[in-house]
């Protein structure tokens, strides 16, 4: 019970941090005078939310670094501004460096994987082998899901998944609360108008 | 434990009476000793005599120089035998995966003979890489260095492929790590506790991650559909310390500037509410930029309804969000 209380308080702090950064990032869009379509708005919201939740990790995890690398890959003017807004100037340089590192490690992983494949596979049809195949399939899918998962080994992957799930949960909770609050306000104001 | 090792005995010529015994002794002795060194578990002392591994005496002598990892209760012979056993001689090489197995798996070591060489090298390299392994890794490291200088065998450090030999200690340690983390994941993902089996648990985890990602998409679409201008009072949110009231305080960020006095506030308990700007739909009935100056008056009117702790945050700065 105590652990859960501690968990909730630490997650509350995390939520606050995420909310702050997210709104910070959204503010960059307030200055644009052009009309944004609903799709643009959605992308902007999602982008700011992703950057915010990744930065709450302070780049200590692989997935957050991968998220930032992906974001900076799309050399979009607005994304750069949002990143700068949320993180601050000096961290964007760090992201650029990490992008190169990730590219190199990706090449390395490719080479290793190619070598591994040429060694050959056992064709033992034992039940354990089948189970292993299933597990391998699942881990491959998981690697695709978790950002930056392609370069990680299994142990790292599971650790990153843990962290990623927790952060996603925070993100979803905050976004859902805000959406609910906004809808409630909308409803109440509509009711008050009638 | 010596059931599968008989076929391996072929290439080895050693003291016949300790043939199977030596392997089992080798199997049982080093890992527990290694475990002792690091984890400091109490392990029952093996009553067996120090195993005489069927290798060259010269190798043993050489290896004894490298026995830095010898624990006090470990006889120098057994630890010396360890690097000797993992020497680079081809036939001896095949033994190492066996000797490291303390819990023999069902797969027969004869099957894995072919790949055990590469697997062993990979394991050694893996042992070299992972730092929190047992001292057996150190032994293997030493052995590889030893072999590198003495024997004509070319030691390849690059990873050669998946180790299909499941007898290795390194593989087991790695699997234990994975299992420990999987348990944590099971606790995190709801509904995973009852499922047994890695594949099913991974299935659930994948579903959960996909569901969360989809929720983020939907929620951002939903928020994009909300009317564009929303004023936030962040400090009311952050004033809420405990986790439970933070959900309520989200509502504290928005507020219609016109609202029936007691009604809405009664439904949300301790909320501070800020004027909310709407564009689009409500354009005719609401003021927009002009309302910014009217913030203070609704605030004052709200003060009487709100509980004192939130009122302190009333005067703090507000953020405007326009999309």
From TrEMBL, chain A:
Q: Does the keyword Aminoacyl-tRNA synthetase apply?
A: no
Is Transcription regulation given among the entry's keywords? yes
Going by the UniProt record, its keywords in alphabetical order are: Nucleus, Transcription, Transcription regulation
Q: Where does this polypeptide localize?
A: Nucleus
Any idea where the IBH1-like N-terminal domain is?
12-74
> Primary place of residence?
nucleus
- Top-level taxon of origin: Eukaryota
Query: Which Pfam family, any one, appears in the UniProt record?
Result: IBH1_N
Query: What is the name of the protein in this document?
Result: IBH1-like N-terminal domain-containing protein
The organism of origin for this protein: Rehmannia glutinosa
Automatic annotation (TrEMBL), chain B:
**Which compartments does it reside in?**
Nucleus
Residue ranges of every copy of the BHLH domain listed in the record: 162-212
* Polar residues composition-biased segments: 307-323
Primary location class: nucleus
Keywords, comma-separated and alphabetical:
Nucleus, Transcription, Transcription regulation
Keyword Transcription regulation assigned to the entry: answer is: yes
SUPFAM superfamilies this protein is in? HLH, helix-loop-helix DNA-binding domain (SSF47459)
Q: Where is the composition biased (Low complexity)?
A: 106-117
Q: Which Gene3D superfamilies match?
A: Helix-loop-helix DNA-binding domain (4.10.280.10)
Region annotated Disordered, chain positions = 1-22, 95-144, 282-323
PANTHER family found in the cross-reference section:
STEROL REGULATORY ELEMENT-BINDING PROTEIN (PTHR12565), TRANSCRIPTION FACTOR BHLH48-RELATED (PTHR12565:SF112)
Name of the protein in question? BHLH domain-containing protein
Origin organism of this chain?
A: Rehmannia glutinosa
């Amino acid at each position: 019970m105590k652990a859960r209380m501690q968990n909730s308080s630490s997650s509350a702090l995390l939520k606050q941090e995420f909310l702050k950064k997210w709104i910070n990032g959204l503010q960059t869009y307030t200055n644009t005078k052009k009309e944004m379509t609903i799709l643009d708005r959605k992308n902007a919201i999602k982008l700011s939310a992703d950057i915010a939740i990744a930065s709450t990790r302070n780049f200590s995890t692989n997935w957050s670094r991968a998220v930032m690398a992906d974001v900076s890959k799309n050399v979009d003017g607005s994304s750069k501004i949002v990143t700068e807004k949320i993180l601050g100037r000096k961290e964007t340089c760090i992201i650029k460096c990490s992008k190169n590192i990730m590219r190199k490690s990706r090449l390395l992983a490719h080479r290793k994987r190619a070598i591994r494949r040429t060694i050959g596979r056992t064709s033992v049809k034992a039940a354990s082998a089948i189970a292993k195949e299933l597990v391998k399939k699942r881990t491959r899918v998981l690697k695709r899901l978790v950002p930056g998962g392609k370069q990680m080994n299994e142990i790292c992957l599971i650790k990153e998944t843990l962290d990623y799930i927790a952060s996603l949960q925070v993100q979803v909770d905050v976004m859902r609360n805000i959406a609910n609050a906004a809808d409630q306000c909308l409803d109440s104001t509509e009711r008050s108008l009638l | 434990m010596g059931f599968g090792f008989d076929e391996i005995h072929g290439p080895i010529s050693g003291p016949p009476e300790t043939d199977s015994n030596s392997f089992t002794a080798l199997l049982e002795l080093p890992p527990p000793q290694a475990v002792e060194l690091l984890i400091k578990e109490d392990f029952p002392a093996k009553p067996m005599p120090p195993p005489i591994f069927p290798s060259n005496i010269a190798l043993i002598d050489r290896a004894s120089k490298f026995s830095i990892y010898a624990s006090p209760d470990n006889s120098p012979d057994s630890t010396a035998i360890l690097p000797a056993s993992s020497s680079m001689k081809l036939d001896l090489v095949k033994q190492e995966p066996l000797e490291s197995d303390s819990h023999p798996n069902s797969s027969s070591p004869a099957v894995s003979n072919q790949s055990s060489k590469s697997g062993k090298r990979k394991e050694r390299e893996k042992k070299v890489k992972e730092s929190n392994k047992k001292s057996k890794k150190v032994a293997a490291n030493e052995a590889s260095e030893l072999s590198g200088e003495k024997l004509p065998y070319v030691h390849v450090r690059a990873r050669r492929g998946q180790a299909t030999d499941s007898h290795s200690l390194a593989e087991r340690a790695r699997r234990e790590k994975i299992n420990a983390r999987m348990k944590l994941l099971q606790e995190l993902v709801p509904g995973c506790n009852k499922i047994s089996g890695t594949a099913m648990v991974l299935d659930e985890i994948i579903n959960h991650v996909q569901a969360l990602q989809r929720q983020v998409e939907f929620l951002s679409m939903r928020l994009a559909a909300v009317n564009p201008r929303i004023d936030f009072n962040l400090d009311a949110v952050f004033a809420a310390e405990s986790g439970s009231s933070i959900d309520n305080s989200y509502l504290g960020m928005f507020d219609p500037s016109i609202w029936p006095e007691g009604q809405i506030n009664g439904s949300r308990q301790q909320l501070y509410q800020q004027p909310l700007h709407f564009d689009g739909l409500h354009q005719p009935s609401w003021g927009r930029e002009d309302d910014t100056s009217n913030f203070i008056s609704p605030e004052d009117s709200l003060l009487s309804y709100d509980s004192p702790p939130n009122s302190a945050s009333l005067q703090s700065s507000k953020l405007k969000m326009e999309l």
